[in-house]
Amino acid sequence: MRIGIFGGTFDPPHAGHKKYADEVRNKLSLDNLIVIPTAAPPHKQKKTSTTAEDRLNMLGLLFEKDSGVLVSDMEIARGGRSYTFETVTLLREQYPDDELIFILGSDMLLSFHTWKNPDVILEKVKICAVTRDGEISKKMLGEYAEKHFPGKKERFIICDFEPIEISSTEIREKVKNGLSVEGLVDAQVMEYIKEKELYL
Ligand code: ATP
Fold first, then answer.
1. Cα(166)–Cα(181) distance, rounded to whole angstroms?
2. How far, rounded to the nearest angstrom, does the alpha carbon of residue 172 sit from its chain's CA centroid?
3. pLDDT tens-digit profile of 119-155?
4. Three-state DSSP class for residue 60
5. Cα distances (Å, whole numbers) of residue 125 to 70, 84, 94, 109, 128
6. Measuring CA to CA, which residue among 46, 92, 103 is closest to residue 69?
7. Is the overall model pTM greater than 0.85, yes or no?
8. Please, which pLDDT band fits residue 53 given cuts at 50, 70 and 90?
9. Per-residue pLDDT tens for 61-75?
10. Rounded to the nearest whole angstrom, what is the distance from the C-alpha of residue 151 to the centroid of ligand 1?
11. Nearest to 72 by CA among 89, 91, 86
12. Among 49-53, 117-121, 150-154, 169-173, the least confident range
């Protein structure tokens, strides 16, 4: 099986995340996509204001109709800082014979070599850079790979994608200011936010 791995804070999950998940599943012909909300992201210094349980519940609502999407609590259950090399090592143990593809935004790709134990990550999974309108070309990706990970170029792939201009930050601000987020957030997720009085 071909399995994608999609991490994020998802505070809250929004229509951009959904579109991203749908497109990478399609374009990379994934059998499954594992969505992993992070406990405490090393790349984002801000603390999440929402409980892990709420973020997990909202992701569950967003993806409940997608049978190929599995929302995993593995980083949340582990707690503390979530390092990708640890997560992919565990996933490799769980899925010893499958093709695992870790998906990341192209803005993150060019600093991938500064992550903790990037060689371990590359040994366990392939890296797919999701680029916007060829912003990172195959040639650039190849040059980056050869410079930092000689001989491992084939571990990097590209998937082109046009993001929707939405962020969780924008959603949180809108909710706080009593503005509508219709169309930006799934209706059930919106209900959950209202019920739990999140982001006020
Ligand atoms: P915040 O505003 O709190 O920083 P965010 O909206 O960027 O959050 P994350 O939880 O950090 O959301 O997103 C996880 C991943 O989802 C990102 O690394 C990115 O790859 C993808 N993503 C986020 N927003 C969008 C979007 N609008 N369209 C497509 N993909 C997105």
1. 10
2. 19
3. 999 999 999 998 876 677 888 888 999 999 999 999 9
4. helix
5. 18, 11, 13, 14, 10
6. 103
7. yes
8. very high
9. 999 999 999 999 999
10. 31
11. 91
12. 49-53
Contact 26 CB / ligand 1 (< 6 Å): no
Q: 189: CA distance to ligand 1 center in Å?
A: 16
**Token pair in block for residue 4:** 């994608």
**Are 102 and 84 spatial neighbours (Cβ–Cβ below 8 Å)?**
yes
Nearest CA to ligand 1 atom 25: 16
Q: Is residue 87 within 8 Å of 37, Cβ to Cβ?
A: no
Chain position carrying tokens 């200011």: 177
Go through the domains of the chain in sequence order and give each one's CATH number: 2-165 (3.40.50.620)
Query: Does ligand 1 come within 6 angstroms of the Cβ of 37?
Result: no
